[in-house]
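Onboarding guide, step 5: your first structure request.
Type a short instruction followed by the sequence, for example:

Predict the 3D structure of this protein.
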Amino acid sequence: MIVKMTHRKPKKSYGHSGHRFYCCTWGGPDTITAYAMEDNELWLRHFLGLLVQFGGAFYIFLLAWKGMPLNILAIPVFVAGLIKYGERTWALRSASSSHFRDDMLPRPDPGPNYAKIMGDYTLQKSQGFNVSFKPVTEPSAKVNCFDPDAPVLEVGYALFKTFKRLFADLILTFRDRENSQSFFCNTDWKKAFDVVEVELGFMYDVLYTKASVSYCRWGHLLRSVSLSFTVSTFAAFLIIDKHEYSSIDLIITFLLLVGAIVLEIYAIIVLLSSDWTMLCLSKHKKAFSCCRLPILLPAEKRWSNSMVQYNLLSLCLKEKPIKCLGPLRKLPYVHEMWWKYRLGQDEGILHRFSHVYEMLEEYSYKSYVTVSTDLKELIFQHLKEKSNSAKGQSNANAIYKQLCAGRGDLVLKKEKYNCHSNLGWSVEEDFDQSILLWHIATDLLYYTDEQDQNGSSVRTPDWRATSKLVSDYMLYLLVMRPFMLPDGIGQMRFQDSCAEAIQFFQDNKADIEGRTKACQKFLRVNTEVSPLEVKGDKSKSVLFDAVRLAKSVKSLKRDGEHWSNEKRWEMICDVWMEMLCYAASQCGWKEHAQQLRRGGELLTHVWLPMAHFGISEHFKISQGHARSSVVVN
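The system replies with structure tokens like these:
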């Protein structure tokens, strides 16, 4: 907001300015208050900044006070600025981890008065009565908005109020799981992902915007005060006598007041166009509850609906060289030194330059693709199948825990595949190693599967394309988002595997043209003896272990016959689905929350549906109080 102060300009100047001007922009926009989760933790610093700026502004206000009309008009603008800054500070405090968690904790509940009940029990028993306890079943609460036919916005908000506890690392009850499963197990994949988008949209608003302040009663009141003070100041400014003031000051003050009013109006349009307002209107059954002011402000996407692709073979084959550095690297001496460094033979003067180049190289090989409908449907069906396998079982909790720990081994043990004895070694290593093994093996099979490339199968390309999408996405997480995966030495394994692949390509440069030729060349290598026995374990490369895995997948048989391409790719896709779910369940809530400010990760849109299907370790409370009544015979 603006604080503008002016007094009468003197006829003569004696070494000082004839007017004083002060302008401060407080509070920031409503659409964003924090650029990272760490900003919320610094709310005390912002509160200190509020006190300092308030003190400075108030001091200048006193110095500039001359009892003139413009001095008086500065008071409501001053209050409006204080409100805006206070809103932001309060929003940051509400989103800080400690306060966010405390706000969701229930009130302390001592439970039934055990000492009193046992006292009555002892008294009745001492008098010779036959005393026993009869359990009283608590009525189960049915949530109407979890009806599969309910509007997406209402279901998303109802689930958000319950499952936002996941973002504070709090536990959920088994009743929460049953209510959530009642919706997700009886709806289609499209509506399920729409509900998840709504939930994460609300979560983003709470963590990174002023939503926790703007959409409450106090927020509405403060918004009204701020707007009315700004508009009234502007109206009074237009009608007061201004001929005694400097023209430059008047023009600047006019523009600043107009700008402040425009920003306030825009903020109100954003507020009226948000999901929070639509939800409030829909609850009151208003006729205009579906309006979102599309002419003034079109609705924004809740999620980018994209996933990043990163491929090891593409990187090692140099399919996308950095153009600005291409001529330099073609120089004979620089080219030789560079390859020596990439092969680990020499560091030399390129050691420092290499880090910058590798960073540019990583981003040049990173690409974005839209999350396909096939992938969403497969994720939904995979989670639904897992959830149904545990529902109604006497040991359901143990089964859900086992499902959370599955990282490909459960798929290989399925009766329709039954290939754990052949491929189980590939999913029993460190998780980052399993990702690299299956990523390289998927590429080797993808580019050498002639039947799929010719399009002779109808269903196979769907499994095949989906496997490739998830494979490249998981490698992106391993290389560029390692904090979202379990701890390991994935970066070291990736670098060593790249170095071995580059060395292999250098030795066979004449026979390799493109990915298909490269993959065929890899599969011709004799891998009868384990690479560990031949090379030792100093190098963490898994390149030729992945070649062995690809050959093992190709040689799978059932009843003496080789698997069809469709069945092979279905198995590979199922393994990737389980790996994706395992990565989502192992990623911490803070990492999921941090990705919301970047548009959201596919991994987060898998993690939340897993919790809705009950596949989570956050469900710990089995029942409420065991209410019992004393029965005296």
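Each response can be followed by summary notes, for example: The CA atoms of residues 87 and 606 lie 33 Å apart.
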